[in-house]
């Protein structure tokens, strides 16, 4: 199961996603989804959010948990995770080609 989310990000994040997408031959939305998923996995592994089996259908639930814990909107969590992922270089070699 998959869910659709919408996030507004700064230009540098959007441009980074677009550049990675071109390099990987993927759609920007697929690149953003992959980067976001990787960031949530790292947050779980770092115990930022409760450790539990991560499945793709839980991604939005996990984001909502982070948002509630931090007292912010889910879109803010998405922006933060995408920004951190790009800053850490996630996606350059990590994104599998289709």
Structure description:
This protein is mainly α and 98 residues long. The chain has helices at 11-24, 28-45, 59-70, 74-87. It has one domain (11-87). 59% of the residues lie in helices and 0% in strands. Helix 2 packs across helix 4 (74-87) and helix 3 (59-70) crosses helix 4 (74-87). It is globular and about 35 Å long. The mean pLDDT is 80.
Mind describing the biggest β-sheet? none
Shape: globular
Q: What count of domains describes the coordinates?
A: 1
Annotation field: number of helices:
4
Oligomer: single chain
Instruction: Work out the helicity level.
Output: 55-70%
The N- to C-terminal Cα distance equals 19 Å
Strand content: under 5%
Structure classification: mainly alpha
Show unreliable segments.
none
- Count of individual beta strands: 0
* Overall pLDDT score: 80
Cα-atom radius of gyration = 13 Å
| Element-level helix/strand string | HHHH
């Amino acid at each position: 199961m998959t869910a659709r989310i919408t996030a507004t990000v700064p230009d540098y994040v959007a441009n980074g996603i677009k550049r990675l997408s071109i390099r990987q031959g993927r759609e920007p939305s697929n690149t953003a989804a992959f980067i976001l998923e990787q960031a949530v996995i790292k947050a779980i592994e770092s115990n930022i959010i409760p450790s539990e089996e991560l499945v793709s259908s839980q991604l939005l639930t996990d984001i909502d948990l982070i948002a509630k814990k931090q007292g912010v909107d889910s879109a803010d969590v998405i922006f933060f995770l995408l920004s951190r992922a790009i800053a850490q270089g996630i996606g350059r070699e990590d994104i599998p080609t289709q």
